[in-house]
Amino acid sequence: xxxxxxxxxxxxxxxxxxxxxxxxxxxxxxxxxxxxxxxxxxxxxxxxxxxxxxxxxxxxxxxxxxxxxxxxxxxxxxxxxxxxxxxxxxxxxxxxxxxxxxxxxxxxxxxxxxxxxxxxxxxxxxxxxxxxxxxxxxxxxxxxxxxxxxxxxxxxxxxxxxxxxxxxxxxxxxxxxxxxxxxxxxxxxxxxxxxxxxxxxxxxxxxxxxxxxxxxxxxxxxxxxxxxxxxxxxxxxxxxxxxxxxxxxxxxxxxxxxxxxxxxxxxxxxxxxxxxxxxxxxxxxxxxxxxxxxxxxxxxxxxxxxxxxxxxxxxxxxxxxxxxxxxxxxxxxxxxxxxxxxxxxxxxxxxxxxxxxxxxxxxxxxxxxxxxxxxxxxxxxxxxxxxxxxxxxxxxxxxxxxxxxxxxxxxxxxxxxxxxxxxxxxxxxxxxxxxxxxxxxxxxxxxxxxxxxxxxxxxxxxxxxxxxxxxxxxxxxxxxxxxxxxxxxxxxxxxxxxxxxxxxxxxxxxxxxxxxxxxxxxxxxxxxxxxxxxxxxxxxxxxxxxxxxxxxxxxxxxxxxxxxxxxxxxxxxxxxxxxxxxxxxxxxxxxxxxxxxxxxxxxxxxxxxxxxxxxxxxxxxxxxxxxxxxxxxx
Length: 634
Fold this sequence. Notes:
Blueprint: E1 7-12, H1 18-34, E2 37-42, E3 70-73, H2 75-78, H3 83-87, E4 99-102, E5 111-114, H4 116-129, E6 136-140, H5 146-161, E7 171-173, H6 180-191, E8 198-201, H7 204-216, E9 226-228, H8 234-238, E10 245-247, H9 250-267, E11 274-276, E12 279-281, H10 306-323, H11 329-342, E13 348-353, E14 358-364, E15 372-374, E16 391-399, E17 402-410, H12 416-448, H13 454-469, H14 479-493, E18 499-506, H15 509-516, H16 518-535, E19 541-546, E20 549-555, H17 559-577, E21 588-595, H18 603-627
Parallel strand pairs: 1-2, 1-3, 2-16, 3-4, 4-5, 5-11, 6-7, 6-8, 8-9
Antiparallel strand pairs: 10-12, 13-14, 13-17, 14-15, 16-17, 18-20, 18-21, 19-20
Helix pairs in contact: 1-9, 4-5, 6-7, 10-11, 10-12, 12-13, 15-16, 16-17
């Protein structure tokens, strides 16, 4: 078979995970080099107990064996919550298709893995032999998951071979989840009252979060406790101190999985199992000097600079501002179309479920819409409509426990995590258009029965008005509501008093979201809103136009009054930070623009001037932070 005729499927959990994102980048690179097509399905970890993330599993039904010549399973991630034994039943339905599994072994499966046991053995032995550690705590993954069991076996063997008795009290199941690193420290220190001189975790995320918690409690790393992880993620290099870990060649796993599977399909040859070595990465968190230099046999030619990445997130931020308060699909999709152009995504389509088997095309930036088709086709004219070789990603759209549909997009190595952010916002926004549409229909029906149901009609109109003028998260006015209220206030005053527009931006919301999750980010926004309501005057009009921004209209107010109020708000922020259970630091930047009756400036010009002054303030703070780094993870 010619490689140009081959279509592979790569089944992953989600792109927010750095391990999965790196593995996918390696697979895409190999597919491009070999000239084969690949479809990446973000199906989620099977039976995930995490709130709503298990909804991703519904996209498994979109996998069409008739379209595929091979399947690559990111099995280590997919089986994370159900274990190896139960997971092995999953690929049975596709057993007629040549496949390769990453991170799991079985006599009936072809796999590519690393030697987890030896890698963990070497890491723990380093702690014992080089640093003389005797009491080593361990944050395990999940029992029954192959990678987790192998690493735990390596940990226990290293203790045994070095004459250290195993103590099960020093083991905590972390399930490979970030926040379980914090919970592990609470369990060891607060509940079990244990002392330990080293901590090893089954992945980097748990190790970093555990290390942060130890530092928050006053422990010095590595003088008091040595810490090490496993995976060698980018975050392991950037944390403080840099994390000693095991370099798992994740990029190479994805690359070689595609390469070997394609070779087998083209030649008809049998695929041999591959075991790749893990490499000890010595950094400062264990007590050694950082003498490690990254070296990989396969280079990712599409890595992007931090400045370009920052520009991408700025574009996403602009998109978020635009879709907040958008309740019409046409307007929503117009914003999406412009955003996709900025990311050079040429083909992107959205389909909504009609029933269990069929979907309707509601958006496409390269073909028509409105067609009904079997969902497994992915697009109206099947995958044959894509120009080969193609690289596509399919991500599900859902709101809480409600399935909405899915989108199919060009998959570029530099936009994988961006597509997950777009997925989040699209899901919520499309659900919002449903709600507004239903409210409008309801209002229309009530209007026909106005004589009988007057009170019900008023309530429906009230809900519709709140959706139009109020921000759902904080209860403040949204952008539309602010402009309307501000213009009414200015007309009432007849321009006879001083006016001050204030623009406030919550600092480093992305850092809070990335480090603690979007739920913590929502808490930060709501707390900031409450502080502003308390700090400013009752006569001031306060709004949240979108994202991490707030606007305030102040009348009969001087710049001195404004500075006094800002100091009061900062004092409230400091009080909150001193008792914040979420362990993030809340801070804000602000800018103001005044106008007096003699030299009245329009509301639009005042907003632009305040926004400009805000960003000048953020630049000054950023410069100061570079000179003196600030720990936003507390």
